[in-house]
Amino acid sequence: MKKKLIPAALSLGIAMAVTVPPAASYAASATEKIDQQLNQLKKQKAEMQQKQNDAQNQITKVQNEKEQTTKDMNELLVQVNEASKKLTQLNEQIDQVSDELEKNAKELDDAEARVESRDAMLKSRVRLLYTNGFVSYMDVLLSATSFSDFLNRVEALKSIVSQDKEILESNKKDKETVAQKKAETEEQLVKVQGLYADAETLREDLKAKEKAKEVKIASLSKQEKTLESISEESDQQITALAKKEAQLQEQKRQAMNTKSPFTYAGGKLGYPLSVQAPITSDFIFRINPVTGKPENHKGIDLGAPKGTPILAAENGSVIYASWMNGYGNCVIVDHGGGLWTLYGHIMNDGIYVKVGDVVKRGQKIAGVGSTGQATGNHLHFEVRKNEVPVDPKPYLR
Q1: CA terminus-to-terminus distance, the chain
Q2: What per-residue string of b and e applies to 199-219 under the rule 16 or more CB within 10 Å gives b?
Q3: Other Cβ atoms closer than 10 A to 28
Q4: Angle at 338 between CA 334 and CA 343, to 5 degrees
Q5: CA-CA distance, 59 to 231, in Å (whole number)?
Q6: Are 278 and 303 in contact (CB under 8 A)?
Q7: Which of 249, 271, 245 is nearest to 260 (CA)?
Q8: DSSP string for 70-101
Q9: When you count CB atoms within 10 A of the terminal residue's CB, does the N or C end of the chain come out lower?
């Protein structure tokens, strides 16, 4: 009897071992398919993250080059201004030298007039001497009426000869002095004009370099804009993938008949910092303090020291934990019910969770920093309802 029972028991055991309830088989198949989709999503996210990182690295490189080019251009502007000042000074010198040259020309004209007058006087005497010769001088002396008259006439003749000599010397001196002064002034004018030409050439060269820098900055700005568009597009795609991942995780839980560890059903959220902090920028339309561009500020900024613990505002699942354009290091938590919270500008090495982690309300998930587009240490906190940013303040009051 026992021998018959053993084969029967074995047959029943084998049948029970190979027979799987249809529901369990379906669940295993569904979760396997979801896992495949999740793995594919992770690959896509990794590729998009790499694309975004590459774009961000290029943006940083372009911004650094743009900053250096702007610095170089500012230095060129200083040099252009200095060259312009030098040109103004040289212009004043040219005016002064030109006035001096004009004055010298007048003095030369006056000197030439004096020389011409003296020459006329000398020529008149030469003609007289040529006409009368030495006899005229002898006649003057011999026609003296007395010895004293003779001496007076000798002195008079000596005076005339001396005067003629002085005239010749004055002529020579006048001509030499004025000619020398004129030559010096002309030389000075040529020198100043040369300096002016050099300064003008330098200024034009500097202005050409300045223009080249402006063109380069415009080109870099265009590159930066293109790269920011790529990075922003990557952000959107990564966020979409994160949303899809969260949906798949929920489908997986349902397929496994596992209750979700979190479901936001309304009510106030927990404060996202370990300490109370002032709102340094509200949920408003504003000018971005970094880019200078108008924008809708999608959350609130809470000013706090670097490293201040950032806390999960509610139970949820981490769907993003990496760099995001503008936000810097960033964490996004899905709380279920279409509610997400975002934590931006986290310090480097300050993300303490990873994608897929389930976090509890008040759990430390990161540290305050100033990465991305930030002018100082603070937490950028967003609340998104069905992916649309809404004012976080009503959720915190």
Answers
A1: 78
A2: beebbeebbeebeebeebbee
A3: 13
A4: 40
A5: 9
A6: yes
A7: 249
A8: HHHHHHHHHHHHHHHHHHHHHHHHHHHHHHHH
A9: N
Residues of the chain with CATH 1.10.287.2610: 37-259
Q: Kindly report the CATH number that applies to the domain delimited by 37-259.
A: 1.10.287.2610
pLDDT in tens, the chain (397 residues): 444 444 444 343 433 344 445 545 555 677 888 888 888 888 888 888 788 788 878 888 888 888 898 888 888 888 888 888 888 888 888 888 788 878 877 877 887 787 777 677 766 765 555 555 544 556 655 676 776 766 766 676 666 666 667 777 777 777 787 778 778 878 877 887 887 888 788 778 888 888 888 888 888 888 878 877 877 787 788 888 887 887 787 787 777 776 666 778 788 999 999 999 999 999 998 888 877 888 889 999 999 999 999 999 999 999 899 888 789 999 999 998 889 999 999 999 999 999 889 999 999 999 999 998 899 999 999 999 988 999 999 999 7
CA distance 146 to 174: 41
d(CA 39, CA 47): 12
Burial class of residue 140 (count of CB atoms within 10 Å of its CB; 0-12, 13-18, 19+): middle
Residue 204, Ramachandran bin (φ over 0: left; ψ between -120 and 50: alpha; else beta): alpha
Compute and round to an integer the Cα radius of gyration of the chain: 50
Q: Where in the chain is the domain with CATH 2.70.70.10?
A: 260-397
> How many angstroms separate the CA atoms of 324 and 328, rounded?
5
Give the pTM: 0.56
What φ, ψ does residue 167 adopt, rounded to 5°?
Answer: -60, -45
Task: Write down the CATH number for the domain with range 260-397.
Answer: 2.70.70.10
Structure tokens at 351: 């993300």
Cα four-point dihedral sign 195, 196, 199, 200: negative
Q: What are phi and psi of 328, to 5 degrees?
A: 70, -145
For helices 147-255 and 134-142, the axis angle rounded to 10 degrees is 130
User: Residue 330 is encoded by which pair of tokens?
Assistant: 């960033």
Other C-beta atoms closer than 10 Å to the C-beta of 81 total 12
Distance, CA of 313 to CA of 332 (rounded, Å): 11
Name the residue type at position 10.
L
At position 204, the amino acid (one-letter code) is E
- Say if CB 312 and CB 362 are below 8 A apart: yes
